[in-house]
């Protein structure tokens, strides 16, 4: 399009447009006018040349803006003990927060355990140690010019008696989460971008429910209770559907069938590749194990009257590590930080071109220490403990420098 405009404008300046069709007479008339110009014709020609030259300049300097990418988000395990000296954030916290802000991260995901925020059935208090920490975290992140959203998960033992010490379980009675959600929205709601209700509720390991049909029904009950609680505390706080692992359209369809419609403002997924050696655009297989399955999620939303709701990628990434000795394909990573960064940037650009509904993309994770976790989990980090910025985050910053965001 740009070349056509430029060429047409140049031809107009040169008097060539339509010249061939006019034949010799037209050419002779043009020659005569050129050899014996009057003051009036000279003024007209000058005006036309000026306008045409202006068109050339405008056409040659006008470029099509790159499509906007989702806002850049990063998971920060800001509530974990590794970041604290008592009730004071430590030096690593400040280094990591500074690095995220310097590399143009726009929104930070903070995971918040219900079990720590309200450890007994007594009403939660803003003065408890864990809730004071959250207050500090939110203020520190916002002070760096970044937004915050909270992922609420992990139920306290009093809400699921007799189920053991593992906090990654749904409450026995879904309604027990409502007062805590009201407290969270009322206390922090004016300073946060939303509350995500649970983490990967399609997986048994984060819900304590083995049967998939029971799992989705329990999640929807928790989602509805949380929605009511959040809106009671602060009606303006967006409620984010608990992002399922991968682009699990089947789980989302089941959630709608169980009554999820009307219980969230933002749809979320965690669009990890089931095989992370595959590029984000890969269509080698269908289903939730590929990012390109997102249209199935969008179709499910449209079928349930939620086609206009935004989608957030509340967690995804590409791990960097050797695959030697790892037989499970879902635990494979990529060989270098450069490949990982390229895949992340391409994920954002894929959303820019094909998925306008995706407003936020949240990378996992700023940092996790190596102790006690797999090489796959450790390989997701975007920062080192001392604040050194890894290649992936530098590449994402370069994307932000050159591309508008939504």
Describe the structure.
It holds the Pfam family Cellulase. Residues 1-19 form the signal peptide. It comes from Cryptosporangium minutisporangium. This is Glycoside hydrolase family 5 domain-containing protein. The protein has 406 residues and is of the alpha/beta class. The chain has two domains: 2-61, no CATH class; 71-402, Glycosidases (TIM Barrel, Alpha-Beta Barrel), CATH 3.20.20. The chain is built from 13 helices and ten strands. It has helices at 2-14, 19-35, 39-61, 91-102, 114-117, 129-143, 178-188, 212-233, 249-257, 294-303, 337-354, 375-378, 391-402, and strands at 71-75, 84-85, 88-89, 107-113, 147-153, 195-197, 239-241, 267-269, 311-316, 358-363. Helix 1 (2-14) runs antiparallel to helix 3 (39-61) and helix 11 packs parallel to helix 13 (391-402). The model is unreliable at 1-48 and 51-62 (pLDDT under 50).
